[in-house]
Fold:
Amino acid sequence: MPKTETLVLRVMNPNAQHHFYCEALGMKDLGDRHVGYGGDEARIRFLQADTPYDPKPNDLYWKIALAVPNIELACRQLMEKGVSVSAPRQFEDVGYLAHFVDPEGFTIELIEHWFKGKRQTEKVDPSLLGGGAHFNLITLRAADIEPVKQTCADWGMTPLSVQHLVSYGFSLYFFAFTSDTPPVPDLTAVANREWLYQRKYTVLEVQHVETIDTVCHSEPGAAGYAGTVFSGMSDDGHHDGLLVDLRGS
Structure:
């Protein structure tokens, strides 16, 4: 089965980024500037950039999300390492979340396996970030969701959840290379959401923003999103088709 293999980011200091993701986030050094938690999850590769990261609200790339069994534990661990992280909060019926940025300003989301107040009793390793973090989401933006849905279907990705945030002007769509099916057939069902954050593989999250006409790609050489590599497909490489379709123009 194909796999979401590698998120590629251009950064000003690949070595410092590598160190932060390993030391603060508990990822492993996978060689050749790759870091990750292993297993079926995506890796992150850092390439050299020429100019600093300057994120904008209509950028194609938004963030990654690390899912954890205990978000309060994760926040305490990060603060002990000198990382400024927001207080966890239940965001609508989407998830129990917190946010911080890495040393170069890339947003990282913490998302608990459970909604606030719904945490299940389970034994976790307190030496691991949040009791055992995994690379749950790569989040991109789209101005037109229909080409994205078609591309993901053509590639054989399974839709896992749809979350409409009407009052915020966007909807969230989740896709993955998996044979898993959500517990409830209705993809908009709130009951599927905690299940989604417990998947031990990396899911593509697409934020469909209704108020933008197109999404912007980082300039050549500038720090930012350089693409996603999918393995196990016909040509086992970068798939720029998804990036083109996500322009929504």
